[in-house]
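Quick entry between incubations.
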Amino acid sequence: MIGHDVFLPTPLPVLCVGITVMLAATAWRRSVNRSFLTGMVTLLLALVFAGRHTGTALDNGDSLFIQDQWANYTAILIMFSSMCILLMSWRDDAHDRTTSLVDEYPLLCMLGTLGALTMVFSANYMPFFLGLEILGVSLMGLVTFRHRPVMPGYEAAMKYLILSGVSSAILLFGVGLAYGVTGSLRFMPPVTIGDISPALPVSATIMILVGMFFKLSAVPFHMWLLDVMEGAPVPVAAFLAVVSKIAIFSSLVRYFGTGNQPPFLNDILYVVIILTIMGGNLLALRQTSLTRLLACSSIAHVGYLLIAFLCPGRLQSGAITIYLLAYTASTLGVFATIAAFATPDGPDGTVIAQWKGLFFTRPFLASALSLMLLSLAGIPPGIGFFAKFEIAATGVEYQRNLLLGALIIGSIIGLYYYLNIIRVMMSAPSLPSASLNRHVRPELMALVIVLTIIVVIGGLFPARALHPLLPVSAIPSDTEAEMTMR
Amino acid sequence: MNPLPALVLLPVLGGGLAWLAERIRPHTGAPSRNASWWMMLATLIVETLLLAMVTFNHPTIRTGPWLEHFSMPWIPTMGIAVRLDMDGLSLSLIWLSLILCFLCACLATRQVTVKAGTFHLLFLTTLTGIVGTFLATDLFLFFFFWELMLVPMFVLIAVWGHEDRQRAALKFFMFTQGSGLLMLLSILGLVITHDRETGVLTFDYFTLAQTHLSPTLSMLLMLGFFIAFAVKLPLVPVHVWLPDAHTQAPTAASVLLAGILLKTGGYGMIRFNIMLFPDAAMYFAPVAMGLGVVGVLYGAWLSCAQNDLKRLIAYSSISHMGFVVLGIFTGSRMGMQGAIIQMLAHGLSAGALFLIAGAIQDRLHTRDMHRIGGLWTAMPRLSATGLFFAVASLGMPGLGNFAGEFLVLLATWHVSPVIATLTTVGLVLAAIYALRMVNRVFLAAPKEDQRPLEDLPVRQMAVFACAMIFLVVLGLHPQPFMTFSAPSPLPVMATNSEGDHAP
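Done. Structure below.
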């Protein structure tokens, strides 16, 4: 069956070709700039072909891949984020002469993106798991790219290796059980056929869910994220926070569908969401490192997203869509600002105290960062405001009162630590201004400007981002009818 | 052309110009600062002209209909639109905002020397948020503006404030935003209930007002709104942000905070608590009135114990806002009118007092009343102005505050004589703190090390005189203001017909 199934969403082969070209070029002569350029061009091409595919999907849904609006949307988000991340790290590595191994950096970035895209498009356990592993293995390499100081980078990579291995094993076990129950590798929760006891599919589902929670770093499976993101270079931290989370969240939605979840899943999700929101926000309170703080905030944002996931209904699709966009744009914005702030031999912007007085020395950068942080906190005019509003709306629609309570408390705590960074930037400058990076790289400036525009325009006119994009098959028919009515 | 969107957007656009005016020649110092200031003044003048046009375009103003209506789709899939409506209440509160902004522009913002352009931009952005809050009749839009005005105010306090500014700014933001989230839930609850009933997802104020709610749900939703407004107003258990924020803010921001931002809380209570949930509000009224009395007494009592000039005025604001809550929740027309008059008068008197406190701080570099004294001989004009507004704030008959407080007390007496009696104690305390301030600051013997001080220039006196005239008119002849500023009834309440459309 698999043999003659050639249905492939075009971005995947495009990326594969690009990566092969990069590999071949590296073998011929090493050049960091050329690798970066190849990567950018490949991603651009893949973006252009985002909605296309080759071959035809099988009617019975047994294809390896699936391409619908949801997959396309998250794929576009992933490719856009990868481009931003490549742009952020370009000069970083090109100017760093301490190591000669920099060609691998764009290569691993592209491989990670390929893995993420594979997960997004997969309709079968096989490509999903392959994608997950491609993403995981390339990330492990990427995490070690922080040269100064060396040890935290290796430590982070080691941690990532072990925990990612453990979670993959759990997930794989779940997949195996699911296959045992249903005899099919289709990417959907196993249902009992015949007289097999329900314990088997339930435990398979839970194991797969736990594996996904590990990758999503939902509390209580979040321990690795903080250390890994702190140890990784800034752009790689962005990759971890954005690309891999979008990919896994997209797969989560694809796997469990957007309808009502079975009761046992509901209960698990309820607990995990509350823990994730509270845990992420509380952990963030006492962080002094900006990347660690962003790791915590990304944990909390996963919690908010899961609220929308748990509340199927008319508003769910719009909420998830816009929240993903808001989270991606704002988080990338923060990381781009950090990258713009960093200097080759000065502060790298990951310690919050280094940002002191930035409003007076670098007003634009400080304003952009404040806007992004406010957007993450859900304050107008950033897009995050509308996104959080939508999440709250889905919660109210389903009367998930406990979750709403967690959302509010989490938001208030979140507001405190986001504002705290802004407060630091507003206090009187202590650094002698000479040590500041006066020459912001133009491409980073452009990136920050573009992301700022996305955040503001998205916040003021969010109507365009509110398309029903979630996998259609999973939406209950009555809701669908309502949607077409509207 | 409809003037309402222009009214909302004009300040922020003007602020942008003011910011640019300073950016064009960033190193010239005073000239570019002046350019930025002139730009702000011009913006305010245009805004005032626009508002005057709106005001005098309507000969039928006395009958109390909605004066202007503007609607434009914004997020159609969610039923959100840019809906702006104006009635007498919002019109009078916008007038108050503009008058206070003029006071600030003439008396306070020129002293800003650090990044004056940004200061003006933020100041005018706050004004946009405030005007938008007063005009929005789409609940989402209202919430948007409600949150939006916090950001520039936070920056104003955190960058240009006094010693402990950042903690105060953080506290201010956290309190108002946190309570705002409860309001968000209430808004969503109301919208979704309406959606379940009729299948129409809309945030339109007028449509939502007809939602049939069970008493429990209605009470819950009302409470969500009430808590948000109570924090902003502020009522006593949730007032802790106010003394810090008012004290630490730069003068112009203090004036905005005390003069207008607090009024958005009162406005919200009238517009949303009373008019959207009349039954629940009446049921809740005893609690609200109790909180109001506690606010009156507690604010006044603490005000008597303050030595920091701005802190004293801040606590007196809590006391005066207690009257507003009392008036609003008496449920009578008279109480409502009293509350509105009180809001207008308090905006003027507290705003002016903050300006005077700012002027004193500029000259003496302290707000500690122990270290200020006997300013009357050195600065007779400033002292006389201070005396006038202090007396206004203690409720001298013939001035606006008295009219408001009297109406509120009268209305309260009809509901509960006990509460009215208790509230009068607040008036006595008001006399104590106001006169104590006057004694300490203006009348006491001059300090030994008094340096020669510069009195208020005549031009600034003229500006203060305008505020005094308003207060006197408000006190001697409040009737036109009372009829003019009454909130328009909801069209459905008046006609009881189907009112899916705004008037």
